[in-house]
Amino acid sequence: MKLPVSWLRAWVDTPWSDRELADRLTMLGFEVESMQPVAPPFSGVVVAEIRSAEPHPEAGKLRVCRVAAGGAELQIVCGAANARAGLRTALATVGARLPGEVTIRAARLRGIESQGMLCSASELGLAEAGEGIIELPDDAPPGAPLRDYLGLDEALLEIAVTPNRGDAMSVLGIARELAAASGRPLRAAPDPALPRVSVSIRERFPVRLQRGAGCARFASRVIHGVDNHRPVPRWLRERLERSGLRSINPLVDATNYVLLELGQPMHAYDLSRLERGLEARRALAGEQLTLLDGSAITLTTDVLVIADAKGAVGMAGVMGSAATAISAATSDVLLEAAWFDPRALTGRGRRYGLLTDASQRFERGVDPDGQQRALERATELICAVAGGQAGPATLEEIPEELPARAPVELRAAQVTRLLGVPVPPDRLQAQLQALGMRVDRAGAEAWRVTPPTWRFDIAIEADLVEELARCGGLDAIPEAVPAGARALAGASEARSSGQSVLRLLAARGYSEAITFGFTDPVLQTKLCGTATAVRVRNPIATNLAVMRASLWPGLLLAARENLRRQRERVRLFEIATQFHHGQDGAVLERRMIAGVVVGPRLPEQWGSPREPADFHDLKADVGALLSLGGRSGDCRYEPGASLPGLHPGRSAQIVRDGSTIGQLGALHPALLQELDFTYAPLLFELDYAAATSNAPVRFAPVSSFPQIRRDISFTVAADETFGRIAERVSVAASTRLLELRIFDIYQGKGVESGRKSVALGLILQDLSRTLTDADADGVVAAVCAELRASLDARIRE
Known about the structure:
The chain is α+β, with helices and mostly antiparallel strands and 797 residues long. Helix 5 crosses helix 6 (250-262). The longest helix has 19 residues, at 773-791. It is elongated and about 115 Å long.
């Protein structure tokens, strides 16, 4: 939210400088993300009046102007189409310095001397683009420095308001906080104070509220005879523009001004386009609505609308209809200031791709007692700027559907426990009352606190304690050593530490990523299948509508962004939670570790050729991770993965003790082009608890006797895995097998079709004696017999 400091000072006279005010806001919980002047630095620019503007004799698009700027007249050659006699504008005199390190010098343009430059808004950094030179009011004093006249050194604050503080999304909301923090009173009347508007016509427009629809209060007023062509006063236009809104016309500007100043969204209807009254109701099934931006939407029955006799004329709290929109020709208007239940609006606008200033405020919560005040302020602005005759204010409400602020009990002991320091009762009561709360004694050291109507975030005792800490200043709480016994837990031998996991993956070239917990439902279905996803009730976007069932969607998108930023070799991993439905429908969470590999196997170097990483590189990384706990030998890699996002011929499930603990493989070819990858990313995902569980530490003696090696070669079915071969060899060789090595695999000439040749090296050793040739030959014979019986192996002599 962007606000000029002067607008805040119009509501509360704080004793602080602009910088101190910004720091105080940050300490109050409203982070000031930036503070900068209205315009970038420039000097030597003054207000000037064009006395005459004649065509240039040598250039049809140029004009020769005589300009007065508080002294002798100057001659300026200008190409702006709006340069004319009598116009007051901005003049950069000779020697002036403009944004972009531009220095103005006297020059001859087509043979005529120019003693300065008449400036556009874009040349002074006041706008990104501008047509023609700046047009100032007729009473602008020639010769006055432009920065002083327009207040261009005024500070603009960019304030980050947290989602729970909808009441602070206005000048009044921030001013309340500053008044409470400074002890200065909040001004009862806003500045500038405008004449009170008297009711001069008796017309009312009928309004009806549907019970349970979500609109419990609706204030309205008819105004006749408005001149929507009148110019908007400079002070109003500047406040809007410096707050990030464009000035449009008196009616629209008045409602936007009230939105920014009081935080109450308003809407203005062209009264001549409404038929026989308004109704706040739920939309009819299939009801159509054309919005102000020209988009046509089909409404669902859970959408709150404002309708007249012909149908919906606006999506309540989001955007009005083009059919009843204000135009330059509008002379009769109906003003609306309503309170909508946040539950009736949350997510409805985003469903149609709409996010407006009004919907942001209504979804966070608007003061249910602020509608009549906003209506009066808007009426004052409209009548002062555009004239008109105002009718009586009409209020329709359903009292039982309005929110009630329940009192919250506050105990001194709980304040001390949570803050670590006591708060004197007098100060406690004064701070809460300064925030608009009603404080009643409920005992010697207890109070019953009722929040004001605009505070939706105060519900429990801890909320009140937070307010005391915030307003009293977190820096005012003294540092103290924590009291009480602290339990220091030792490292568990049953599980690898998180630091060891991070160090290992970092050593293998991976960087840790942090991605959103919610993801695109379409991408997730393609990667993980059609299992029922955990849907987000109020998604911030349609492509973030489900909780992730896998860490892969986020990692793939992160890898793609790295590649687009010219990273050739990407290795990312993430340790985070995945979400899925249990058998009883409950949402279950499971901590996972996942990674993605894209690009060459090694960084570019002279010592090895440039080759892309493949499945076996990824398997080596996963094996290293599993070896942290000494359990890599317990895992089997079974071909094929259960997820559709992996290549069926380049993927595997990781199985241990009969249970699948993870998967790895290359991305399915069908997804490569869709996700804009040139080469197939490699992916792995493991159950974090299973991946980091350690095997029990047992003593293993080291034999002092020599090893013997025996090699055997045989053929087996082409689809036979090394895991099954190693399992049968270990069974047959028993305790004398120290290590098993596979040193050759061959398919082709000399080997039957559908089979492959495998060569193994058996490293044999005994703990109690030196093995003889007969011992080794016996082990080899047992292994060969087992392979023949179990795997239909054919021993090659």
